[in-house]
Each structure stands twice: as structure tokens, then as C-alpha cells.
Amino acid sequence: MTNFLVAGAFIVGMGAGVAFDTSVNLEPTNVASRDILDRQTPSSEVCMANGASAMVFDQRVFLSLNPFNIYVSQPEVKPGCVLRRSNWSILERNKLVNADQEADCKRNMNTFAFVGDLDKSPEVSCVYHSEEAENQYMKDPKRAVLGDGNQPRPGQDYSNKAFR
């Protein structure tokens, strides 16, 4: 009887191990959690102490007027960091922003973000925190800008917010 229990436990353990191995990917190339994103962020210690790690999407949009067409490039995803407004001194210390840039950014209630290592030559941008971009799934999906995922049924109002 004990041999059957040991064999059963072994088989259950093997099955659990295979299930865990196939469903969880902790490779550094796979951003499956905030911890992995934090580790991939340039100047991660400085970023975690003074802001938040972020995924940065660099994308180009081309607009032709004759004929009117819009072309969109594939986004390039990079790790970056968004600094809290109270911690801009890090950028000043490294001479990455000057007083005029700081005043411009502050005037519009923005903050700074960067891509690249602070000790080298990072790309620094003044970024706007959009309250409109908050996760409507967690709040109220009916208030989402592009719609709530529901199309009206025949006989209902046909004003589709997703069509712009």
C-alpha cells in the first residue's frame, strides 16, 4: 500500500511540475510581472526609489493628405522610468534637463520620464499623466473613450463610440 502512495505522490508531483513549467515563463525576455519589468528598467535602483518602471512604446504615425491616408509603424517596446515630480533633481544633477525645460514641464503639470541608463546618455521626455487613460475595466467600463465592448441591439441607439 505504501508503494502505491509513494508512486501516486510521485506522479502527482511530476504532473504539477510539468504544468508549472509549461505555464510559467520567468525568462528575462518575457515581461510577465512587474518584478521582471522592474529588473529590466535602466538605472532600476534609482527608478524604484524615485519613480516607477514603465513599458515605453515608440511608434510612428504617418499622415498623407493627398490622398488622405494614415500609416502606423510597428511599436518598439523598451523599458523606461517615470519619475515623480518631487525627484527631478536626479535629472538636474546629471545635467540632463535645464531650468527652461523643467519650467516648461512643470507649467503643464507634467513630469519627466527616461529611456536608457542615467549614467550614459538617456532619452528624457516630458510626459503627461493622463487621467483619461486610467483602467476603465477596474473603474467603469461604460465611461471608456472607445466604448464599453457592447454594440446596441436592433431598435436601440446606434451611436457607436468606437467609430471615430
Characterise the protein shown here:
This protein has helices spanning 2-23, 34-40, 44-50, 89-93, 99-107; strands at residues 51-58, 61-65, 68-72, 76-83, 111-115, 123-127. The protein has a domain at 41-143. With 164 residues, it is α+β, with helices and mostly antiparallel strands. The protein has a four-stranded antiparallel beta sheet with strand order 1-4-5-6. It contains five helices and six strands; from the N terminus they run H-H-H-E-E-E-E-H-H-E-E. It is extended, with a radius of gyration of 24 Å. Residues 160-164 have low confidence and may be disordered.
Question: What would the keywords be for this entry?
Answer:
164 residues; alpha+beta; 4-stranded antiparallel beta sheet; 5 helices; 30% helix; 22% strand; disordered C terminus
Number of separate strands: 6
- Any idea what the shape is? extended
| Major sheet | 4 strands, antiparallel
Approximate strand percentage: 15-25%
Order of helices and strands: HHHEEEEHHEE
Name the poorly predicted regions. Answer: 160-164
Q: Rg, please?
A: 24 Å
Q: What is the CA-CA span between the terminal residues?
A: 69 Å
The spatial strand order of the largest sheet comes to: 1-4-5-6
Structural class, judged by helices and strands?
Answer: alpha+beta
Could you tell me the mean pLDDT?
75
Number of helices: 5
The helix content, as a percent range, equals: 25-40%
